[in-house]
Design a protein that fits this description.
alpha+beta, Pnp Oxidase, Chain A, 4 helices, 7 strands
Length: 143
């Protein structure tokens, strides 16, 4: 068995991969092809905590009513993704889901809510197994 067993397949150039996904997402109203076909993803645009510049990233999500549950997994890395720190500094962001674009307010969930959300975020356990840090779960509330 290889040492990469259980690890997600991560492109060698994640930035280029995400730019291509963002371009396709916007051109097709969220209907992706290839390895991204059928996945529940959204585009999250945050304001850089240090730079103040807009940053757009591709994130998996699960719907919860009119809200969106996301995890700050960073593909199982030992540190949270930049977008997570951006949301801590400025919780107002924009998301694109399918053809829709709207503002959201992000909040990190507490332990009680986390336990309930682990049932709908089916990939959390796989991501959590890759890192000793507790992966934060956030709710993006439509404004």
């Amino acid at each position: 068995m290889s040492s990469n067993a259980g690890k997600p397949q991560i492109p060698s150039d994640m930035k280029a991969f995400n730019l291509k996904v963002i371009e396709e997402f916007r051109a097709t109203g969220g209907q992706l092809s290839g390895q991204m076909a059928g996945r529940q993803i959204l585009l999250l645009t945050t304001i850089g905590a240090r730079s103040g510049a807009e940053r757009t990233t591709v994130i998996g999500y699960r719907p919860r009513g009119r809200e969106f549950a996301v995890i700050a997994s960073n593909n199982g890395a030992d540190k949270a993704p930049a977008w997570y720190h951006n949301l801590l500094a400025n919780p107002i962001a924009r998301i694109e889901v399918g053809p829709e674009r709207f503002q959201v307010k992000a909040r990190v969930v507490g332990q009680d809510e986390r336990a309930k959300l682990t049932e709908i975020i089916d990939y959390l356990e796989r991501q959590q197994a890759l890192t000793p840090r507790q992966i934060p779960i956030l709710i993006l509330e439509r404004l």
